[in-house]
């Protein structure tokens, strides 16, 4: 991924928020949106970064998908942190944010209204309407999640 200084700066700022919600779309952000959807698997690097984020205090991770939660879990490469992962439909992100009391949100491939310190990142052209930041593909999402996990781990 080409370094996007504005995106990296936004991730640095949001990583310090007291209670963070990270919401990533499964199809098109964590897993390539091509071929047979039943065979889609999350990129291993993204799953590993999500494992780190799930294990951190005051950090909630949600995979956003219209698929059933158990199906999403089977398509992810998750360790024992699997129990801390939430699966929500796209319309459930706002309610989850309220439930966990998130002071900021990082949304990747998910169309949500941004407020305050939120970081909304589109993935590819068709998934990025209105997103202030954009990455090209699932490999870039993996880089973004690794960076966020590293930054959040330091607080």
Written overview of the protein:
This is Roadblock/LAMTOR2 domain-containing protein. It comes from Actinomycetospora aeridis. α2 (about 45-55) runs parallel beside α5. This protein has about 160 residues and is of the alpha/beta class. It has helices spanning about 5-15, 45-55, 70-75, 95-100, 140-155; strands at about 20-25, 60-65, 85-90, 105-110, 120-125, 135. The radius of gyration is 14 Å and the shape is globular. The chain has one domain (about 5-155): 3-Layer(aba) Sandwich (Rossmann fold), CATH 3.40.50. The chain is built from five helices and six strands. The chain has a six-stranded parallel beta sheet with strand order 3-2-1-4-5-6, sandwiched between helices. The model has no long low-confidence stretch (mean pLDDT about 90). The protein is about 35% helix and about 20% strand.
Q: What is the class in the CATH system? A: Alpha Beta
Q: Tell me the major beta sheet.
A: 6 strands, parallel
Shape: globular
Estimate the strand proportion: 15-25%
Number of domains: 1
Assign the CATH architecture.
3-Layer(aba) Sandwich
Structural class: alpha/beta
Mean pLDDT: 88
Radius of gyration: 14 Å
Q: Calculate the terminal CA-CA distance, rounded to whole Å.
A: 25 Å
The CATH homologous superfamily is termed HAD superfamily/HAD-like
Number of DSSP-assigned strands: 6
InterPro entries: HAD_sf
Protein name: Roadblock/LAMTOR2 domain-containing protein
Features:
155 residues; Rossmann fold; 6-stranded parallel beta sheet; 6 strands
């Amino acid at each position: 991924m080409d370094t996007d200084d504005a995106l990296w700066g936004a991730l640095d700022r949001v990583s310090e928020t007291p209670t963070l919600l990270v919401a990533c779309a499964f199809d098109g952000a964590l897993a390539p949106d091509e071929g047979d959807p039943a065979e889609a698997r999350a990129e291993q690097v993204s799953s590993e970064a999500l494992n780190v984020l799930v294990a951190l205090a005051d950090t909630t991770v949600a995979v956003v998908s219209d698929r059933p939660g158990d199906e999403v879990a089977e398509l992810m490469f998750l360790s024992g942190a699997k129990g801390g992962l939430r699966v929500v439909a796209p319309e459930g992100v706002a309610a989850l944010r309220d439930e966990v009391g998130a002071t900021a949100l990082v949304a990747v491939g998910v169309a949500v209204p941004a407020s305050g310190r939120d970081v909304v990142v589109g993935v590819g052209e068709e998934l990025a309407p209105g997103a202030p930041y954009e990455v090209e593909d699932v490999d870039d999402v993996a880089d973004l999640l690794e960076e966020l996990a590293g930054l959040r781990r330091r607080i």
